[in-house]
Amino acid sequence: MTRIVFSGGKVFTGRASEPGDVVVEGDRIVDVGIGLDGDTEVDATGHTILPGLFDCHVHFMFSGADLVRSLNTPFSLPFYEAIGNMRATLRCGITTVRDALGADLGVAEAVRRGLVQGPRMQIAVNMVSQTGGHNDDWMQCGAHVSPPLHPGLPDTVADGPEELRKVIRTLVRHGADIIKIASSGGVMSPRSNPRHAHFRDEEIAMIVQEANAAGIAVMSHAMSGDGILTAVRNGVRSIEHGVFLTDEGVEKMLENGTWLVPTLMAPRMVLDQAAAGMAISDVILDKAKAVVSQHFQSFQKAHQAGVKIAMGTDSGVGPHGDNLTELTLMTEYGMSPAEALHATTKSAAALMRLENELGELAPGKLADLVLVEGDAEQHVKAGTLKQAVRAVYQNGVSLL
Question: Where are the beta strands (DSSP E) in the chain?
Fold first, then answer.
């Protein structure tokens, strides 16, 4: 096989960027060092070479928070929009994601089979919610307003351990690689309160037990302090958002090794769309405004305490392709640029249990690489990383 050497650049090691070359053969990295040779050379002089980036919380089937637009969207159109959403994500260097609700097995298989171009993905299929919870789309008028259920997207609103056992097994049957639950209310749901905990201990314990039996993990949308605690003490792998994280919650996350996926962009995307004139209800806007400042404080608290953090954006609530803004927000609220890059590479790979294959530039790893013109860490700090991406490789194949 042809050996491709990326030469003359700086290689991001996970903690810093150092001069070096990367050699790729087929779909694998075979060498990293100085003065390496290959059959074909890619001149990386003046560039930083990053591992393929991760986003641990996206929604490819969603294209914004405009309710009126969604109600006037034909049923099948989001499947076609997802193709553009996935391409936009790849273009900013993200080659691996968790789709946290929406993409079904068909979407994931289309990428796996090479029918469409997109990041490799783990899918949650749908989010498990209690009645009146964050994935219950019942409106006060009696209508249901979320995308309709279909053969690839089962109903996941359930109450009590036995109903939840059935739901988890159904999601596994439908191809879920990860189980997504809502252990609190949220911003985008019509009738839930982000400060309220959802599901009781015996319910989440059942969910985790069934997920573990299937060999997969549980991620929990959790904003309220109590909702975070219930999820953590019953064994979820990651807390998504973590807006009202308490000191006790931090202690329990450290004790259990629970990850935080902060999605600092999420409420800001809602507010930005409203400012641009999108039809977003006052109820949702009020909730988004109420969580923004607390969200940043909780992220700072978790980071300072040493909680494990992986990058995720909630893209789909807002535009796809702006994902790297999350890294800049992380640096604004306490991370160094190198820590933010670690959160979207090696840390994210560990969260998704892909660290043996991805997340760093090392021999034997899959050849996902991103070439960034200039100093990637400086771009993270300045908010210009997306604009500096010059090439993206997935499995050794150039995508741009």
Answer: 3-12, 17-25, 28-33, 40-43, 47-51, 53-58, 94-99, 120-123, 127-128, 178-182, 217-222, 238-241, 259-261, 308-309, 369-373, 389-394, 397-398
Q: Please report, for the chain, how many H helices and E strands are present, in that order.
A: 14, 17
Burial (0-12, 13-18, 19+ Cβ within 10 Å), 327: buried
CA separation for the pair 387, 390 (Å, rounded): 8
Nearest one of 55, 62, 196, 61 to 129, comparing CA atoms: 196
Question: For the whole model, what pTM was predicted?
Answer: 0.95
Dist. CA 112–CA 116, nearest whole Å: 8
Confidence of residue 138 (pLDDT cuts 50, 70, 90): low
51 strand-pairing partners:
369
Please, which residues bridge with residue 17 across strands? 12
pLDDT, tens digit (0-9, with 9 covering 90-100), for 97-132:
999 999 999 999 999 999 999 999 999 999 999 999
Average pLDDT estimate for 356-366: 98
3-12/17-25 β-pairing:
antiparallel
Instruction: Give pLDDT, residue 139.
Output: 67
| Pick from 132, 213, 126, 232: nearest CA to 165 | 213
Output Rg (C-alpha) for the chain, integer angstroms: 21
